[in-house]
Amino acid sequence: MTSTPSTVSTASAASTAFRSALEVIAQVEPRVAAAIGQELTDQRESLKLIASENYASPAVLLAMGNWFSDKYAEGTPGRRFYAACQNVDTVEELAAEHARALFGAEHAYPQPHSGIDANLVAFWSILAHRVESPALAEAGVKNVDALTTEDWAVLRRSLGDQRMLGMSLDAGGHLTHGFRPNISGKMFEQASYGTDPETGLIDYAALRAQAREFRPLVLVAGYSAYPRLVDFAAMREIADEVGATLMVDMAHFAGLVAGKVLTGDLDPVAHADVVTTTTHKSLRGPRGGMVLCTAEYAPSVDRGCPLVLGGPLPHVMAAKAVAFAEARRPDFADYAQAVVANSRALAEGLLRRGVRLVTGGTDNHLVLADVGAAGLTGRQAEAALLEAGLVTNRNAVPADPNGPWYTSGIRFGTPALTTRGLGEAELTEVGELVADVLTATQAEGESKVRYRLDAAVAQRTRARAAEIVGAHPLYPGVELV
Ligand code: PLP
Questions:
Q1: What is the pLDDT of residue 186?
Q2: Which of 133, 189, 338, 460 is deepest in the core (most CB within 10 A)?
Q3: What ligand 1 atom has the least distance to the C-alpha of 223?
Q4: Does residue 59 sit within a domain?
Q5: Mean pLDDT of 353-381
Q6: pTM of the model as a whole
Q7: 55 falls within a domain
Q8: Using a 6 Å cutoff on CB, does residue 252 contact ligand 1?
C-alpha cells in the first residue's frame, strides 16, 4: 500500500469516503463509529504476523458498505427466486468472470459467505455429482434436489461408505477436512494423512498406499499450517488411481495461485475437480468464500444456495469482483512473489537465532515454529509475543504433545506485512525480534499458560516493532479526523 502519484488522489477520495461514513454512523450510534475508528488505529499500530489475515484495499472495503446489502437473491444470475436482481446478477457475473480469468477455472461460484461454507457447498456438490453420475443413475438414483429418504439409502449403498481422506490437523490440515467438530466429520468417515516424521513433508508414496487401502470418495488437499509446497499433480494421480474426487482447499494460498507463484504441478486449479477458497487471506479480498470447479461439477456447485447456503451477500460479491480485478493486475504477481520472499526472510531471522522450524523453513507465505523445543507451549509463546507487540497465533505442530488448545507451535505469515510494504531485511529483523522474545520467556513451573518475560526485552521489542510498522503506514492518506 505504498503511496504512488496515481494512488494519492485515490487515498484522499477514500479518506473523504470513510470520514463521511463514520459521520453518518455516529449520528445513530456513536460508539460503533468510535469502535470502527479505533480498529483502524489499532491495526495501524500492530505488527501483524497472522498468516490468515491481510488488509483489503479501500476499493474493496467501500464496495461492501452500500444498498446491495438490502437485496435477497437466492439462486444464480438469471435464475433467481426473487425479483429485481438485475444488478446483483451484474456483480455476481463480474466476480465469477474475474475469478475464472484469474485462476483459469472453467466455473466459479462466488456466493459462499466464508471458507467453511465454500467447503460445505463442495462436499454436497461432490455427493450430488456422484448421485447424478451415469453409474448411479443406473442404480435408480434421481436428481439430488428430489431425493427421498429411500433415495438416500440407495445413494449410501451405491457409494459405499462416504469416505474422506484429508490432511491431519497437527500436520496443518483444517477442521473442515473431515474432523468431528465440523459437519464434514459427520458427513464422512474420515482418515487423515500426516507428514514424514523426519522431514515434516507430505510423503506421497505413503499417501498413495493409504488411499489404496482406504479408498476415499473425496481426497482433500490443502492446509492452514503447512509451510511447504503441495504437488497437486501427484495428488491428482492418487485420486484417479482410487476413483476419488480431488478437492483442494486453497483458502490460505489462493493469493499465491492468483499471483502465479504456484504454477504447473503446484497449481491446484489445473488439477483438482473442485477447489475452494476464502477470499480474505492471501487473496486480499473481502471476508468470504468461493468455489471453483470443472464444468462437470458446475451444475451441482451452483445449487449451493439454497441447498446449504443462505441468501447470497451481494455487497460482498461486489467487493469480491473488485478484489479479483485487483488481483488480475500485474502488481499482484509482484505482491505474491514478495509474500514468499518475505516469508523466507522471516524464517532466516528465526533460524539465525536458533528457533526450531517445522520442515526447517518455508516455501510459501507461512512459517511454523516449534516452541516446545524452547520449553514453552504455543499459548505461552503467543501471549509473550503479544506482550512484546508482535501479533501471532498458536498452532499445533506434528505429533504435538500439548494438543490443539495449548499447542507447541506458533504460526507466522507475511501476507499482511507485505501489503504494508515491508521488505526482506525488515522481515529478517522481525524474525530476530521474535526469537529474542522467545529466548527471554520462561514457563512458570508446570503451567502451560503462565510465563515470565524479561521486561526490558518486552519493552525494547515493542518500541522497535512500533518503529518498523510506523515506517510503513497502513491505508496511507486515510485520515478520519
Ligand atoms: N479452509 C482453510 C484451509 C482455512 O484455513 C480456513 C480458515 O482459517 C477455512 C477453510 C475457513 O474459512 P472461514 O473462516 O472463512 O470459514
A1: 83
A2: 338
A3: 3
A4: no
A5: 97
A6: 0.94
A7: no
A8: yes
Q: Quick one: 205 and 348 in the same domain? A: no
User: Are 137 and 236 within one domain?
Assistant: yes
Q: Same structural domain for residues 351 and 202?
A: no
Q: In the listed set 302, 327, 352, which residue is the last one of a domain according to the structure?
A: 327
Residues 198, 291: one domain? yes
Say how many Å lie between the CA of residue 104 and the centre of ligand 1. Answer: 22
Residues 255 and 338 placed together within one structural domain of the fold: no
Query: Does residue 230 contact residue 176 with C-beta atoms inside 8 Å?
Result: no
> End of a domain among 271, 304, 327?
327
* Residue 235 CB–ligand 1 contact under 6 Å: no
Statement: residue 206 has pLDDT above 90: yes
157 and 141 fall within a common domain: yes
Share of the chain above pLDDT 70, in %: 92
Atom of ligand 1 nearest to the CA of 289: 15
Domain containing 209 — which CATH number? 3.40.640.10
What's the number of domains the chain is made of? 2
- Whether residues 342 and 313 share a domain: the answer is no
**Do 190 and 289 have their domain in common?**
yes
Q: Report the nearest-CA residue for atom 5 of ligand 1.
A: 224
pLDDT digits (tens, 9 = 90+) for 104-134: 999 999 999 999 999 999 999 998 887 666 5
- What is the tens place of the pLDDT at every residue in 297-353? 999 999 999 889 999 999 999 999 999 999 999 999 999 999 999 999 999 999 999
Q: What is the pLDDT of residue 3?
A: 38
Tell me which residues are annotated as active site. Answer: 72, 74, 249, 278, 281, 287
- From the CB of 174, is ligand 1 less than 6 Å away? yes
Residue pair 409/368 in contact (Cβ under 8 Å)? The answer is yes
pLDDT at site 130: 75
149: left (phi over 0), alpha (psi -120 to 50) or beta: alpha
